[in-house]
Specification:
single chain; alpha/beta; Isopropylmalate Dehydrogenase; 2 domains
């Protein structure tokens, strides 16, 4: 067990509850002999998991009790102040103490970010952590940040996001020189507000592989590896993508079931439809990293099922094995990006 990598799992977060988390943990342990997972939650949940899976996985499936649960609609400040023994807080504390290399939670996003920032602190040179996740494109996926942690940003924040996104794209995406694009209302240099234009100047001078401004329709074109924007715009873009995917899926089902002929056509097109569904399956892209923290925290979608949550665990394992926070710290130190323009 000396080579095992421990990941703390908030077993109480998310819409589907502990069952999805525990099922995902079993899937990961069965496929990754070097993983050790630590379930964090109420005693009754832990005892049930131990009774069902303890004999199979032994010490590779650990347990950490937490007496409280942060509700999905709970105010982040109240959760931080009053829920010090919540499963979310205990999981982050385990990372802080070095007992876990990372933690994963499908719980309250605001509470997770506030607690993680309070407990773990930010890396030197990082003013604000950001939420980063992969977004599917025609040629694979691109990394996008910020997806909701920071509603307003200055130019230095966007520069730091670009640097952090580049590190993640290199470490987790295996890219030598990730192409960075700054989301804007047009590609011309004169477009956008003062903050975006100043950020473009800073990123262009940073040594990153900056390709310039991109528009919303360029996100999916496969010509950029990192999309940088503020959390307000990024979150709206992300929710728009999710809504569009649901609409297309629903309309395809409706069209292919509206008549006997269409149902036959659906059978003929079934292989292609299955392949498309697999490529666009949001569960494949579940697992948003809270980058910029002095530790690894991965946010799973609140409605994630076991398959999606397992993917979030894989993101945490990969980030821990690649040493993403260390590489971000080195990148920022080399670039000397602490805030000097605010």
């Amino acid at each position: 067990m000396s080579d095992a990598l421990t990941i703390a799992l908030d077993a109480m977060g998310g819409d589907l509850g502990p069952e999805a988390v525990i099922t995902a943990a079993v899937e990961i342990l069965a496929g990754d002999a070097q993983a050790r997972l630590l379930l964090v939650g109420r005693e009754d949940v832990l005892e049930a998991a131990r009774a069902r899976h303890g004999a199979r996985f032994g010490e590779r499936l650990g347990y950490a009790p937490a007496s409280e649960v942060v509700a999905m609609d709970e105010a982040p400040r109240e959760a931080l102040r009053r829920k010090k023994d919540s499963s979310l807080r205990v999981a982050i504390d385990l990372v802080k103490r070095g007992e876990a290399a990372a933690c994963v939670s499908a719980g309250n996003t605001g509470a997770l970010m506030a607690t993680a920032k309070f407990v773990l602190k930010t890396l030197p040179g990082v003013d604000r952590p950001a939420i980063l996740a992969p977004v599917p494109t025609i040629s694979g996926y691109t990394w996008m940040l910020d997806l909701g942690a920071n509603v307003s940003c200055d130019a230095d924040n966007l520069l730091q996001f670009a640097a952090m996104g580049s590190v993640v794209a290199a470490d987790l995406g295996g890219l030598d020189a990730p192409r960075v694009g700054l989301l804007n209302v047009g590609e011309e240099d004169i477009k956008g507000n003062d903050t975006v234009r100043e950020a473009a100047r800073l990123i262009a001078a940073s040594g990153l592989n900056y390709i310039g401004f991109i528009e919303g329709n360029d996100i999916f074109g496969g010509e950029v590896d990192v999309v940088v924007t503020d959390g307000f715009t990024g979150n709206i873009a992300l929710k728009t993508m999710e809504g569009l995917a649901r609409m297309i899926s629903g309309q395809l089902r409706e069209e292919f079931s509206c008549s006997p002929l269409r149902r036959l056509q659906a059978l003929a097109a079934l292989p292609a439809l299955k392949a498309l569904r697999h490529r666009l399956d949001p569960r494949r892209y579940n697992g948003a990293s809270l980058v910029g923290l002095n530790g690894i925290v991965v946010k799973s979608h609140g409605s994630a099922d076991a398959t999606a949550f397992a993917n979030a665990i894989r993101v945490a394992l990969d980030a821990a094995r690649k040493g993403v926070p260390v590489h971000i710290s080195r990148m920022l130190e080399n670039q000397k990006t602490p805030c000097t323009h605010a």
